[in-house]
From TrEMBL:
Gene3D superfamilies reported for this sequence: DnaJ domain, Urease metallochaperone UreE, N-terminal domain
Pfam families, per database record: DnaJ (PF00226), DnaJ_C (PF01556)
Keyword entries, A-Z: Chaperone
Entry-linked SUPFAM superfamilies: Chaperone J-domain, HSP40/DnaJ peptide-binding domain
Organism: Microbispora oryzae
Species classification: Bacteria, Bacillati, Actinomycetota, Actinomycetes, Streptosporangiales
InterPro entries (alphabetical): DnaJ_C, DnaJ_domain, DnaJ_domain_CS, HSP40/DnaJ_pept-bd, J_dom_sf
Molecular function GO labels: unfolded protein binding
UniProt protein name: J domain-containing protein
Any one GO biological process: protein refolding
């Protein structure tokens, strides 16, 4: 992969829509997040993917990246992208305008890679202190808000609590201690004030928003605040009724199975789902799944054969009538 090619980092074409970029990032971030992928190199790949998404997910930043390439951060905001893009492509010498309308000339084939910001602004505002004078002229610029995904298991989302996370940054990885509210739902955002983009000229930094993504679970399926779980039942438990244990993220609880329960019936445990600090918690919906012995004993087989000989029940149609 070409160094600094953010489109290749996400595996999308340069014509990709914002939705395609977001889907690609979510897929790769889940695959390479250091908390779930312990392979060597996974953390570096996660940093690469996150930096690419940080740039390409913002339309304005993406336009500057498309125009100026990997060195776009060193380019003053008011430099004309079209003029400089022609110069980067090796066209005839071009011109661009600085922040005050000052003309900046470029030689053929010159680009922003490796350019010295002090030299560039010094040429516009005079001397090696030109960059400082430029910043004073533009005034303070607040830092932008940023987003990153926060993958959680169902149990972590249910319990909440403090958690250490690692995120990539331009100066290396950043570690945070995050207070996760109990009962966060998929797509909910956790705000870290002042941890976003850096402001300039003394302006405050932006905020960092962690978007919760609840990872697939082998037992639970989460829909909003409701938690769905399969409830295996023996044929006699389903037919005669029983009180059985069911595992939930909050621990084991009991559910009463009414007589005559068939597979697919949902038994609701009210208030046992995701907590809700501001209102009613969700429910646990235990879905009956009738399970038969894979290798019945001789005694079990005789009892099933006896049941088959006397029962008039036909699950595929009308009850059987015996002579």
């Amino acid at each position: 992969m070409a160094a600094g090619d953010f489109y290749e980092a996400l595996g999308v074409p340069r014509t990709a829509s914002q939705e395609e970029i977001q889907r690609a990032y979510r897929r790769l971030a889940r695959a390479y997040h250091p908390d779930v992928n312990k392979d060597p190199g996974a953390e570096d790949r996660f940093k690469e993917v996150s930096e690419a998404y940080e740039v390409l997910s913002d339309p304005a930043t993406r336009r500057r990246y498309d125009a100026f390439g990997p060195g776009f951060r060193q380019v003053p905001e008011d430099v004309d992208p079209a003029a400089y893009a022609r110069a980067r492509a090796g066209a005839a010498p071009g011109r661009a305008r600085g922040p005050g309308g000052e003309e900046i000339r470029f030689g053929a084939g010159e680009g922003f890679e490796g350019i010295d910001l002090e030299d560039l602004l010094g040429g516009v505002f005079g001397g090696r202190g030109g960059a400082d004078r430029a910043r004073r002229r533009w005034g303070p610029v607040p830092g932008g808000d940023q987003e990153a995904e926060l993958p959680l298991t169902v149990e972590e989302a249910y319990r909440g609590g403090r958690r250490a996370i690692t995120l990539p940054g331009r100066g290396g990885t950043r570690r945070f201690e995050v207070n996760i509210p109990a009962g966060v739902t998929d797509g909910q955002r956790v705000r870290l004030a002042g941890q976003g983009g850096t402001g300039s000229g003394g302006a405050p930094p932006g905020d960092l928003y962690l978007v919760v993504r609840i990872s697939p679970h082998p037992r639970y399926r989460v829909e909003g605040r409701d938690i769905h779980v399969d409830l295996p039942l023996a044929p006699w438990e389903a037919a005669l009724g029983a009180t059985v244990a069911v595992e939930t993220p909050g621990g084991e609880t009991k559910v009463r199975v009414p007589p005559g329960t068939s597979s697919g019936r949902r038994l609701r445990l009210r208030g046992q789902g995701m907590p809700n600090p501001r209102g009613t918690p969700g429910d646990v919906l235990a879905e009956a799944r009738i399970v038969v012995p894979r290798a019945p004993t001789d005694a079990e087989r005789r009892l099933f054969e006896q049941l088959a000989s006397v029962s008039e029940f036909d699950p595929r149609g009308v009850p059987r009538r015996r002579p």
